[in-house]
Amino acid sequence: MQVTEHVHAIKIPFAVPTRFVYAYLIYGKQICLVDSGIAPAKEIILAYIQNSGRDPKEISWLVQTHSHADHIGLSAEIKKISGCKVAAHGAEKAWIEDIELQYRERPTPTFRSYVQNSVGIDLVVSDGDTVDLGGGLAVRVIDTPGHSNGSVSYLLPADRPLFSGDAIPPVGGLPIYSDVLAAIQSIRKLRRISGLKALFSSWHDPILGEKVYPVIDGSLAYIQKVHELVRKEKAHSPGLNSSELTLRVLKGLAIPESLLNPIVITTIEAHLKESLRPNVLEGV
Ligand SMILES: [Zn+2]
Question: Are β-strands 152-155 and 137-143 bridged in parallel, bridged antiparallel, or unpaired?
């Protein structure tokens, strides 16, 4: 669906009901794709572009917020179809250019069904860089590590939407970040950007207008809620291993136990590293 003058949002369902990822299209003289979703979504993305009167061959840029499988699933295919250039942060490059390496180091259960091919990065980006999309449009790169080391967000100055990838955890969702303090600093950095008109996160439905800043604030409060649960359960049962502790925390967040996976355990371990801080938002 079209969500601003230039931006179209594509919701991509996962096999797990209620879970999804978003990819975004920036329509200008050419097309920029922000993340490519998962491999099974090929027809969804290509059909959307064609039904909107454009051609997938018009994609000139694919800008990656980060390397995880649900963000790079179609990247190789899109590059093959369109000849587009691919941009990503240097800290994500290895996992995008070698998906076997990513799978060895971060083996998510759905990895193989989400991404089948590696893709080469044409432009390594970092904080403050601008990617010129042609026709007077550009996106500005904002480093937002925490969810992953090289996570970036993109600001489109033209109509001021922010593409935040997985940098802003959704309240009530699985908390996924490998560095809790970096995640908080990144969210605050995004919060300081004035005049945001829309927030296009990969795991929220598009957020428009005055709802943008409250959603960002809510994610910070949610991280603190997770932190308090970790501290409470650890104090109550010091002998719990990481997996058992994570299950307790998920229960406290009203998240089904069936969603337990090694990635969310990493999040809880990241909180444990900061467990001496009663309030993880303070002093960061
Ligand atoms: Zn991710």
Answer: antiparallel
* Residue 146 scores a pLDDT above 90: yes
Average pLDDT over all residues of the chain:
95
pTM for the complete prediction?
A: 0.95
Tokens of 278: 């009663």
Distance 182 CA to ligand 1 centre (A): 15
Distance between Cα 185 and ligand 1 center (Å): 17
- State both tokens at 259: 């969603």
Helices assigned H by DSSP within the chain: 42-51, 69-72, 75-82, 90-97, 99-105, 111-114, 180-191, 212-236, 242-252, 262-273
**80: CA distance to ligand 1 center in Å?**
23
Angle at 96 between CA 155 and CA 144, to 5 degrees: 35
**Contact call for residues 206 and 170 (beta carbons, < 8 A):** no
Q: Please, which residues have CB less than 5 A from ligand 1, an ion?
A: 68, 166
